[in-house]
Structure formats: C-alpha cells, structure tokens
User: Which sequence fits this backbone?
C-alpha cells in the first residue's frame, strides 16, 4: 500500500481493504513512500521495494501521467528472472493511497484485486487523480473560483440574501459554458449528474465527504443465481440516482416493482467454469439516501427514424411513499423509510419545441412554488403533480431543441415530469431548516471572480458607457431587432418533385441541395410571407407549372438525423399559413425551406386509404449497373412488398414469372433486405421511406455480366 507521509492504521486498512468472505489471506503488509518534493520528481519514478507473500513489490509512479493528463500510479512485481522461469503468479488485493501529511483528511485512494503473473506483472490506475501540486480545501484561501462546488455555494449564498432573481453565470462558467450555450436547451438529468459527480469528487478532500454520501448516495445490490446449478453471487454498486422506466408502468410504484422484480437472463456468461447459464437477477437497496433523485426514462430510440423520441405516457407519482419494501436485509429498518415529494422537474413540449421548469416545496408542510427562469410563483398540488403525469394513450414525439420565450408556457401541449426529488420524511425538517446569516461562509459572499480579476480587465468590467455610447448601442439594437423581425416574416422556398426523383441515380431521393443545384422543376420563390395560406401557394404553383385544375399536395421535405432527405407526413394543411407550417415542421425557423410537390398519380394504392404511407420505389438494373427512381406508391400497414410485384412487372414489361427482390434504403451506410411476405407494418415502412427492387437474373444473364455488382446491397 502506498501511503504519502504517515503510517497506516487499522481503520484505514478496514475501510480500503475489507476482507473477502471465504478468502484465505497468506500475508498482509503496508509500505509508506514519503515524497519530500513532488515538483522535482521525474516523469517516471519507482518506490522502494518491499516484501510480501514471498515476492518483492514496489510502486510505479507517473507524476505527470502515463499518456494522460492525470497522476498515474501502479503496483508491480520487482523483476525476478527465477519467478518468470517458474511461471509464477499471485492473487493480490491492494490499495494505493495518496496522502497529504499536513492534513490527514485529504487523501485519494483506489483499491483493486488482481492476479499477477509473468504476463501481467503490474496493475493499477492510469487516471488515479487530477494533477495538482497540493490539495485545496473547499474553503481554503486560494480556492479556485472555477470550482463547481465553490460556484454552487456562491449561488446558494446569493439566493439566501438577494431580493431579486440571481444570475447563475458563476455556476455555468464553472461548467465551461459560454453565452451561446446558456440559450441552448440542456438535459436536466445530465446536468444534475455532472453537478453531483463534480461536487462528490471535490468533497473527497474535505470532512464533508461522509455527509454528502449520506445525503445523496444510493447503495444498490444486484443478486444473481443460476437456475440449474448451485451458484450465487452479488454485486454492490453506488449511484446518486435511480433511473425508472415509464413505458408500460402507470404508476411510480409499478416502475419500482419492475426495477426490483426477479428477471431471467438466458445464456448469461458466468465465467470459464460454468460458461453460459440461465440466471435470475434481483435488485434491492442496501441503503437509500436522505435526498432521493428519481430519473424517469421518458425517451426511447426510434430505429426507423434514427431519432430520439419523447414518451408522454401517463405515469402517476405519489406525494408520499414507503420505500421499506425495496430494501435488502442488510438495510437498517429501525426507522421508517417514508419519503415526501420535494421537487418535480417538468419537461414541457409542443410539436416544435421544449423547455424545463421546476416545482419545489421549500418546507415539508408548505406549498409548492413554480421556478421558471427568473419567475417564482405559488403553485397548487395539482399543478405540481397531476398536471405533469402525462397523456393517457400518448404517442411518442420526436425530441426537439427549439427555443421558446419563458413567458409562453401555456402553448406547450405535453407537460411531463422527467425527474422527481423525494426527501426522507424523518429527516425533512433538519434538511430544510432555515439558513441563518451565521451559517453562510464569509468567503462565499464576495463576487467570486473579483478577487482574481486581471487588472487590465477592470475597466472592461466596471466602467460605464457614456450617454452617446448608450444611445448608439440602443439604436443598433433597435435596428438589428427590426431587421430580424422583417426577415423572420418572410421565407424562401425550394421545390422538388417526382421529376427530381426519376432523374436521380444515387442514394436517397435526390442530391442534398449542393451549392448551385437546380431542381428538375424550374420553380422557387424567394420571398413568401408567413401570412400566406397554403392553398394560395398551391394555386400559384399549379398556375406556374401549367397544371391548373390538377390536384396537388405539398409535403415538408426534411433532412433526417440519419443523413437522408425525405418527405415527412402529413402533407401541409391547405388552410394553415406558411408561417405556421414553418414553425411546425422547421423548428429552427430557417430562411429557406424545402418542399415536395406531389402532382403525379401514384403507381399503386390510394392516397386516401386508411393508414396509407407515401413510399418511393427505385429500380436497380444489374445489367447496366444503374439505380434509378421509379415512382411513388401508397402502401397500407397490411400490404407486403410482394403485393407491388404485379404493378412493377407490368410497368417494366417483365413476364409474370419474373422474380423480384426488395431492399430498403435506411441511411447511406445501411441497406437491408426485405422479406417479401412480411407486412409493411412489421417492416416498419412509413412516409418517405425508399424501397428498391431488382429482377433476379437467370444463369445466362448472370454469366454474361462483367466483373460488377450483382445485387443492390453490394452495389
């Protein structure tokens, strides 16, 4: 054991190296390597050798990191040619501790168990700890103000004393965020995880580490048991939250029951001895924290769309709950494990945008308050709870990152709780007790950056603009705002149609509008008002294309996340305005939008059929090594690819015995074969999808082909 500057004691040994059950210990020892001048160490240092278990050991230290910007420390066998010849090995449990001799409470430790042998004579930690010349106390005179824990203290101090809204910039600066990122939606669960992990790491060198662990750490125990053989084992791990599934669970208790229920893992690899076994798994909690964070999983990955979708499923959560039923036998059940709802983080969304806000109950018996940016307003229990349960029989929606004004919350149609915060009822009053003036550390009250502000920046921070300068800035701001409002009220539109598709010989429906690309239909409008009604635009298009009286439909042409450009349903409502259409389908409000004009008759199906989807067909000509757009069809969920074959044979002039195979173009790097007998529903075919067909070649045709691609998947 490496220990920096003091002797080891039984308490430290028991904490870092607990004895394993049923393991025989041959010998145990410790070694202290006192380093007098860390700054003068070489890039690689070896500690003094010591004996244990019949072998000679030493510490291998990289003060500046072994290929990383961290301190790297390893435990290794001293080179011994005799042991190498004997194919020597040793099973060792060890701990490495970096210790500050001036302050015993400041140390970093890591422990491991490893089977050392001639092939692996060393083991340890490449990222042992941060590279710092000395540990700094959280309240030290030279605490770095980029420290997240310090920044959080400052924000809380300001919240306690300020009479108006408090700026979080000191905290966001500690995350490395700049102005632009402050106006981008951030995931609330990820933010909390990063914040708590950062503070936990920071508090490792302070006496507060045990209090933080008691407040926020969940001890999770996972028990495994083989079904057919007598083999059991368990794994213990720590977390600062519990992630629960919403899908198929109507209440929070249903989610907990699913999380802790016994599950069967078939073909689970148990190791070299028992190999694959059917194993049961059961999760329980050895300890629950005073403050319990529950992450509700309200997103799922849509394979077909290659996108993350939000789940708005109905999911009830209680104001109070008893967690004792989910505790393991090891847990202390001498006191009740009742929890009281303290906070609800809500994700509110519409078809084009989303935002977060929070409901918090500052006192155990008090009311909730709604915290929305710089506004804090009283809230009812219904507003904090049942209004955020979700939507019964809801359909998932694509997650968006549109930004909306903070005052426009009423326009959000789907408001769902995404994170719940419960406090153990028996500890609620002590945790939420009033903060006195004397409780606030003096060092958190000054402006954190003022002490370290460079002198040459003082004028920039503190000086006030002149009257003339203020007037000029205001004038520029008004001019810019007017220009932005004027530009936002108009848009340019590019159109594409089947003509583009039929002339395209590559992947997707058409090229991705490269610079200078001209559509097959010479039609575009550079200045369309947001107030124009879609049916007026349809009439204009019909007149300009010379197809007056012909029914047309206009589809949004969307660049998907998987790199494709496809029409996305439903078609634009003729009664809606172009401004509403842009907001609905193009949440970033681009100045140029792309639309698909459907004016040709479909080759198969009816566009008005129940549940029909617009699908595009391509033909792969193996003889001429060419792929070409063929046309569009409307398929229902019960249709199969083989249902398209008669129409294709007739259009291509093939005989009734021609065998046709089908593939789906999913994205540039993924083309999948399709089972001709499966329904479109099972194949997950929807609006804008592309199906490619190919006639199977006979032996004579195949033999006459030059060296080339015989199928579309290889092409």
Assistant:
């Amino acid at each position: 054991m490496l220990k920096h500057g003091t002797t080891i004691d039984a308490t430290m040994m028991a904490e870092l190296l607990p004895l394993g059950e049923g393991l025989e210990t041959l010998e145990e020892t410790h070694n202290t390597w006192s380093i007098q001048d860390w700054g003068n160490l070489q890039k690689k240092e070896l500690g003094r050798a010591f004996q244990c278990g019949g072998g000679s050991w030493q510490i291998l230290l990289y003060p500046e990191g072994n290929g990383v910007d961290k301190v790297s420390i390893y435990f290794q066998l001293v080179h011994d040619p005799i042991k190498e010849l004997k194919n020597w090995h040793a099973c060792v449990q060890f701990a490495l501790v970096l210790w500050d001799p001036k302050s015993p409470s400041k140390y970093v430790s890591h422990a491991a168990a490893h089977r050392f042998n001639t092939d692996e004579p060393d083991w340890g930690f490449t990222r042992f700890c941060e590279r710092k010349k000395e540990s700094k106390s959280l309240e030290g005179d030279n605490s770095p103000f980029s420290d997240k824990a310090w920044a959080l203290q400052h924000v809380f101090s300001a919240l306690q004393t300020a009479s108006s809204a408090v700026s979080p910039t000191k905290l966001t600066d500690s995350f490395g965020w700049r102005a632009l990122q402050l106006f981008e939606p951030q995931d609330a669960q990820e933010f909390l995880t990063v914040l708590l992990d950062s503070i936990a790491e920071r508090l490792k060198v302070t006496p507060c580490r045990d209090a933080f662990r008691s407040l926020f750490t969940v001890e999770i125990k996972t028990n495994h048991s083989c079904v057919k053989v007598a083999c059991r084992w368990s794994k213990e791990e720590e977390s600062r939250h519990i992630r629960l599934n919403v899908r198929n669970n109507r209440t929070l208790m249903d989610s907990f029951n699913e999380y802790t229920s016994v599950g069967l893992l078939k073909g689970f690899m148990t190791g070299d001895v028992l190999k694959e076994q059917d194993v049961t798994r059961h999760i329980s909690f050895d300890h629950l924290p005073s403050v319990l964070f529950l992450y509700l999983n309200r997103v799922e990955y849509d394979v077909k769309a290659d996108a993350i979708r939000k789940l708005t499923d109905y999911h009830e959560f209680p104001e109070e709950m008893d967690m004792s039923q989910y505790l393991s036998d090891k847990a202390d059940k001498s006191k009740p494990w009742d929890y009281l709802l303290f906070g609800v983080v809500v994700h509110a969304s519409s078809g084009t945008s989303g935002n977060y806000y929070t409901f918090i109950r500052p006192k155990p018996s008090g009311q909730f308050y709604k915290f929305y940016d710089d506004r804090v307003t009283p809230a009812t229990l219904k507003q904090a709870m049942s209004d955020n349960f979700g939507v019964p029989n809801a359909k998932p929606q694509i997650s968006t990152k549109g930004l909306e004004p903070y005052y426009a919350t009423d326009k959000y149609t789907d408001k769902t709780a995404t994170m719940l915060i419960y406090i153990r009822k028996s500890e609620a009053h002590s945790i939420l007790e009033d903060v006195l003036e004397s409780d606030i550390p003096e060092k958190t009250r000054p402006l954190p950056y003022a002490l370290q502000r460079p002198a040459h920046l003082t004028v920039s921070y503190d000086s006030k603009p002149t009257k003339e300068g203020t007037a000029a800035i205001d004038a520029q701001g008004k001019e810019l705002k007017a220009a932005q409002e004027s530009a936002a009220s108009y848009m340019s539109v590019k159109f594409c149609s089947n003509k583009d598709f039929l002339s395209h010989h590559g992947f997707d429906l058409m090229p991705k509008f490269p610079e200078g690309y001209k559509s097959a239909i010479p039609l575009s409008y550079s200045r369309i008002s947001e107030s124009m009604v879609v049916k007026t635009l349809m009439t204009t298009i019909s007149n300009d294309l010379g197809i007056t009286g012909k029914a047309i439909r206009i589809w949004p042409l969307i660049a998907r996340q998987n790199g494709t450009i496809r029409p996305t349903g439903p078609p634009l409502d003729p009664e809606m305005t172009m401004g509403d259409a842009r907001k609905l389908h193009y949440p970033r409000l681009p100045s140029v939008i792309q639309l698909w004009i459907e004016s040709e008759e479909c080759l198969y199906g009816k566009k008005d059929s129940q549940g029909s989807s617009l699908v595009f067909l391509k033909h792969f000509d193996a003889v001429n090594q060419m792929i070409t757009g063929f046309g569009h069809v409307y398929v229902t969920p019960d249709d199969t690819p083989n249902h398209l074959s008669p129409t294709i044979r007739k259009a291509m002039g093939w005989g009734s015995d021609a065998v046709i195979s089908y593939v789906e173009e999913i994205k540039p790097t993924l083309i999948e074969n399709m089972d001709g007998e499966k329904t479109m529903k099972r194949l997950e075919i929807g609006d804008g999808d592309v199906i490619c067909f190919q006639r199977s070649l006979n032996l004579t045709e195949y033999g006459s082909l030059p060296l080339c691609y015989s199928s579309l998947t290889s092409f």
Summary: Residues 136 and 143 are 6 Å apart (CA to CA). The first helix runs from residue 10 to 16. The mean pLDDT is 77.
